[in-house]
């Protein structure tokens, strides 16, 4: 399973640094956060390190008032659904996207614009069929991925998820770029229905022999490796690890929002901790148990474990972000086994270990608040076990060919 970098506010330098460290990565570019000029400059910079880009049009809410999006040349003015789809608006936008953005950026795939939807019906199929037909008339030589920006209520409903798969089976695309809305605006997700239906959706699309990329993800989504997902995407701020639908409806200030705090990602616990809680671990003599293993090849957090009280050292937001993505990259690299059984065993092992560790840390007063895997550990383990009954036999037999 690959990790793609989900570009967001203030992420350019992190992206270049990590591409250099990893000797290349795929980055999902955001027109909400960058002008075309800045994207072209970034694409050229990444190419030096064997990096590549994919351009996400972020057409989730066509009537947005977000100034940055509306200023892009491909964005329609005075959007009207019927006129856009039945007139020349759709074709014109797609041509501008491809010729003025995708080609100059040397993108390695074309993400087909898709509108946020919370239900699956004839209108869903009609809108997407019109867009697909317009794309098929273009001479596009790179893979084409359809956007699926899915409302949380749909993914909570098994029947609707299966109906969505029925519609998607015959779509003439090479893959799908899934942007799922997290339930209750939660970072880590404890809703078993939502999780298992996302799991099943990815698995169903993979059985259609499609590439599947899940955007706006975090480390909990490692479970999707069992469904043979091709990549998950994550970035620095939480807004690149869980999709902020509201930001695409209005013009905001592009900041993370809420109380600003620096977090340390403890990869073996699959949990992020505020530095003040590392002070508690330090005074309790258990800070050494939270240190990142050398296997993650991350020296960004070394300063936290050199003997001083963690809040008194100069551990910056920059190091915290790069550490998180470095660790997640290694976890993505390691999570997929040679067989279905190996992958399931590995997932169960890391989830069980994270539950045990976070329980131990909690018993010593060290908590990750809303980023504590202990809050969702049992649910995450349960959907891995449930997947065995839903798709396990098929994936065991077809693992090498999916």
Question: Could you walk me through the main structural features you see in this protein, from its secondary elements to its overall organization?
Answer:
- With 402 residues, the chain is an alpha/beta fold.
- The chain has two domains: 2-248, TIM Barrel; 263-394, no CATH class.
- The chain has 13 helices and ten strands.
- It has helices at 12-22, 36-47, 67-70, 81-86, 89-102, 122-136, 152-155, 158-168, 192-207, 275-283, 317-335, 340-363, 377-398; strands at 2-6, 26-29, 52-55, 110-112, 144-150, 175-180, 211-214, 231-234, 263-266, 271-274.
- The strands form two sheets. The chain has an eight-stranded parallel β-sheet. The protein has a two-stranded antiparallel ribbon with strand order 9-10.
- Strand 4 (110-112), helix 6 (122-136) and strand 5 form a beta-alpha-beta unit.
- Helix 9 (192-207) packs parallel to helix 13 and helix 12 packs antiparallel against helix 13.
- The two termini are 13 Å apart.
- 45% of the residues are buried.
- The model is unreliable at 253-258 (pLDDT under 50).
């Amino acid at each position: 399973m690959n990790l793609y970098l989900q570009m967001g506010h203030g992420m350019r330098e992190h992206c270049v640094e990590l591409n250099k460290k990893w000797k290349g990565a795929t980055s999902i570019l955001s027109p909400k956060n960058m002008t075309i000029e800045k994207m072209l400059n970034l694409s050229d910079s990444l190419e030096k390190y064997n990096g590549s880009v994919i351009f996400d049009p972020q057409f989730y809410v066509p009537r947005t008032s977000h100034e940055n999006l509306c200023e892009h040349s491909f964005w329609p003015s005075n959007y009207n659904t019927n006129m856009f789809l039945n007139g020349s608006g759709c074709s014109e936008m797609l041509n501008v996207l491809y010729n003025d953005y995708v080609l100059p950026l040397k993108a390695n795939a074309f993400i087909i614009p898709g509108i946020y939807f919370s239900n699956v019906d004839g209108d869903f199929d009609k809108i997407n069929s019109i867009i697909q037909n317009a794309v098929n008339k273009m001479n596009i030589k790179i893979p084409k991925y359809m956007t699926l920006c899915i409302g949380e209520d749909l993914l909570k409903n098994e029947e609707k998820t299966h109906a969505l798969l029925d519609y998607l089976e015959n779509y003439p695309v090479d893959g799908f770029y899934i942007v799922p809305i997290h339930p209750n605006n939660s970072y880590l997700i404890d809703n078993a229905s939502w999780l298992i239906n996302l799991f099943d959706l990815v698995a169903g699309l993979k059985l259609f022999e499609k590439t599947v990329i899940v955007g706006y993800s975090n480390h909990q989504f490692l479970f999707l490796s069992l469904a043979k997902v091709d990549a998950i995407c994550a970035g620095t701020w939480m807004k690149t690890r869980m999709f902020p639908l509201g930001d695409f409806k209005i013009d905001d200030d592009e900041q993370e929002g809420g109380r600003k705090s620096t977090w340390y990602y403890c990869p073996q616990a699959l949990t992020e901790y505020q530095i003040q809680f590392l002070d508690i671990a330090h005074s309790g003599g258990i800070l050494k148990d939270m240190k990142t293993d050398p296997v993650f090849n991350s020296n960004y957090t070394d300063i936290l474990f050199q003997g001083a009280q963690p809040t008194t050292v100069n551990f910056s937001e920059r190091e915290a972000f790069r550490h998180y993505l470095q660790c997640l990259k290694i976890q993505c690299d390691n999570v997929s086994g040679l067989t279905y059984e190996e992958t399931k065993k590995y997932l169960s092992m890391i989830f069980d270990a994270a539950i045990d560790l976070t329980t131990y840390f909690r018993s010593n007063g060290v908590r990750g608040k809303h980023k504590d895997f202990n809050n969702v550990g049992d649910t995450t383990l349960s959907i891995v076990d449930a997947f065995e009954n839903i798709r396990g036999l098929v994936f065991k037999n077809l693992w090498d060919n999916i």
